[in-house]
Amino acid sequence: MTGSRLTRWVVAVPMAALALATIYPLLFTTNVAMKTKRDYTLDRFSLTDSPRLDNLVKAWTSVGMSRYFLNSVVVVACSVALLLLLGSMAGFALGRLRFRGSSALFLGVLAALFVPFQVIMVPLARIMADSGLVDTYPGLVLAYVAQFLPFTIFLLASYYSTVPSEIVDAARIDGNTLYGVYWRIMLPIGAPALLSVGVLNALFCWNDVLISLLVMPSAEHRTLMVGVTSLRGQYSDDIPTFASGVLIAAVPVLVVYLFLQRQIADGVTAGSTKG
Amino acid sequence: MAAPSPSPTRVAAGVRPATRRTRVGSRAERLAPLVLVAPAVLVLVVLRLWPLLLGINFSFTGDGDRDGTAVGLDNYLTLFDDPLFRTALGNVGLLVLLLPVAVAIPGLLATFIYLKVPGHRLYRGVYFFPAVLSPVIVGAIFTLLLSYDGPLNTLLGGVGLGPVDWLGDPDVAIFAVVGVHVWATFGMALVVFLAGFATLDSSLLDAAKVDGASLPQTIRHVIVPGLSRTIQFVFVTTMIGMLTSMFGLLFVMTSGGPEGSTYLPEFYIWTQQGRMNRPALASAASTALFLIMLVVGLAQIALLRRAAGKED
After folding, report:
1. ipTM score for this prediction
2. What residues in chain B have per-residue pLDDT under 70?
3. Is residue B64 part of a domain?
4. Is A203 within 8 Å of A253 (Cβ atoms)?
5. How many angstroms separate the first and last alpha carbons of chain A?
6. Which pTM was predicted?
7. What CATH number has the domain spanning A55-269?
């Protein structure tokens, strides 16, 4: 059914071309970041004969990318930690324990999964403003936690529902309270799922621009992605510096992808086969 | 867990009669699951459920001078009179039309990878890569690639094709942005399809092979029915993605222009809230977007269910 050798190649050539088209834009950007302004104006494609890091240094120091970078790291780290804590507690309770109202609560979480941020962003901005959380780190962290918690709970609950109940029972007989079971058994057992959902949440928060723009708008508090959008206006005549800023924002994601690609894919596909 | 000396709770449990422990524990134990879910529920109620209700309520009140007063359906009337919002709705229609293409591309690619075309081991990792990049990064890179004097037009000029104003021509820009969105996200759907293939009964494929079925026949009679649930999932998530995760691209690449031609509801909401200071109108647009998503989502599920029913 895979057919003759000819059809195989008829398929293989466009696929290879597409793979190239997938990679090329980032390679192009990297090359531009290493060029001088003059080099770029003269020839966009040629590989620069003397790759220079000036632009990267400039973007990192004088353009403010280092500040934005730090803001993003702080917010993402806090958000992911809080998401994993709240998500694993709720995921364990909803996925593994039966209690009055548990299935109704789980349905509520599922329903929240289908309410996009755009639908609640206006009133959320007002709530944040009324409670003095606008333009603060805790405000943005809370906004991220609220946004990605339903997904986190859903994934962790379906993971914990596969943990045999004998494990819970055995730990209870050993004298553990439910809190003890959670802390000493469920957290370590959940490590693979926590890693997968943690990496995904880190990507979501790192890549977000809308929530950040809405909740933490001031120049001083800008996260990295908002910083990149502001570069575009400032450096429209200095493309190599602009490209350097883009590269700085992309490199952490690239590194995470190289090492944790499987975990990311696992998180993305969870739920697709259970339907 | 691996503490060298027995923990205090263990000692207590061992020494005291079991009855006392269970009775003392029972009330706290019954509450424990609730305590575990409480923080998450609190966050979700205050920062998701409450704003949802508040937003629907907002949409029936006024902006500016009429802040807080009930205005009935005024915002909705303004909304549907606004050419920008109409363009946004028209673009949603366009996305719905393009949806089958956006699903078919990763579906076909996943099929070829599953059937082990040369290089299949490499493609999954390569194709999936743009899906983890921020729309801001993708948008920034493509602003360079698609600019009027940029590389793509240079390339086209090399083979004698005239320069296209990808992001400056109102008839072209929305296709350029959607094209970039598909470039950036098809890997996501591809990975979901591949996970679906992993659950497919391979003996059916072998049978098709023995019967001498062609590739299109195999796709139609074996792969599509076998993956109906995955296809349904990809349709719905791709649609949600198109309606709710293109903000970053629009913000960086076109800002809704040229001539408002690339507006989508989510960008309209942001503009009314963030730039025009009209939160009530923005809330009406939010509610409209929510309804659109419900209708489109339910319609898709119904359509696909029926299609799947016919196949069975």
Report:
1. 0.90
2. 1-25, 307-312
3. no
4. yes
5. 29
6. 0.88
7. 1.10.3720.10
